[in-house]
Specification:
It is built from 11 helices and 9 strands. The chain is an alpha/beta fold. The longest helix has 24 residues. The chain starts with a strand and ends in a 7-residue tail after the last strand.
């Protein structure tokens, strides 16, 4: 029996995760009253049915203390029931944006500010997040990318750590991305913008890629960058970091940064047990 507890911040994608687990064969139950959890687990485990994968959603709600849910989970573990915890998370900024767009009230602050509710919830969930087997930060994840993460953990059973790495190209003239953890300036490389036949192309086109990567400095930069990233990632994981955004910037964010972001993605893909995604922020600006 594989038993997964799905919890996390309201608005971080818990319901979507449960639906995706259901799609891959899990029997899913959400918002079960806390007093019924132990009885539910006992019935599922001792049942003669063919159910062998179960996902149970747990929310922070104003009508029952979450500490009681944690106590029940602790009792289950002491009774010999094994379970995994999937914690869905997102940044403060993203959660507030999602609440604003959906016009929903936060369960812990129905008559107050959403920001206060998020802060209270994060404090309540602090301990269960620390105990979680998997933490997925959905701040920059599309649904299909979340599906890939769910498949990686629960279908392919690949070795997992909770770090999601985003490689982000951008243009300095449009501002440095606010969520970038590491920022690299590649404006030292010759600019394809001044080559007539390359000006209207981007770093997603082979001609631009060949031009940018044709300089010895580009290859040397990539080698040093790749080496540093692979040194940093295990240390970030050890620290407990869940998301790493690597920003690569040039002037307009269309040629050099896009080329090098693509190249870094290609070199990092399938090299570690971290999630990896690629995003070009400014590639379509002015095109």
């Amino acid at each position: 029996m594989r038993f997964v507890i799905v919890t996390g911040m309201s608005g971080a994608g818990k319901l979507t995760a449960i639906k995706l687990l259901e799609d891959v064969g899990f029997y899913c139950v959400d918002n079960l009253p806390v007093p019924l959890i132990e009885k539910f687990v006992e019935l599922i485990v001792t049942s003669s049915s063919e159910i062998n994968k179960v996902a149970l959603g747990l929310d922070v709600r104003a009508d029952q203390p979450f500490e009681e849910a944690c106590r029940v989970l602790d009792n289950l573990k002491k009774s010999g029931y094994k379970y995994e915890i999937l914690f869905m998370d997102a940044s403060q900024h993203v959660l507030m944006k999602r609440y604003k767009e959906s016009r929903r009230l936060h369960p812990l602050s129905p008559e107050g500010r959403v920001e206060d509710g998020i802060r209270k919830e994060r404090e309540i969930l602090k301990s269960i997040k620390e105990d979680a087997d998997y933490v997925i930060d959905t701040s920059n994840l599309l649904t299909r990318e979340l599906k890939e993460e769910i498949d990686r953990i629960f279908v392919r059973n690949e070795e997992y750590n909770s770090l999601m790495v985003t490689i982000l190209s951008f243009g300095f003239k449009n501002g440095i991305p606010a969520d970038a953890d590491l920022v690299f300036d590649v404006r030292f490389l010759p600019n394809p913008y001044y080559i007539d036949e390359l000006k209207l192309q981007t770093g997603n086109d082979k001609a631009v890629q060949d031009y940018v990567m044709g300089f010895p400095e580009s290859e040397e930069f990539m080698k040093k960058l790749e080496e540093m990233i692979h040194f940093l990632i295990p240390n970030y994981v050890k620290e407990g970091k869940y998301q790493l955004v690597i920003g690569i910037g040039c002037t307009g964010g269309k040629h050099r940064s896009v080329t090098l972001a693509n190249e870094l993605y290609k070199r990092m893909k399938d090299k570690g047990n971290y999630g990896l995604k690629l995003y070009h922020r400014d590639v379509k600006q002015g095109l």
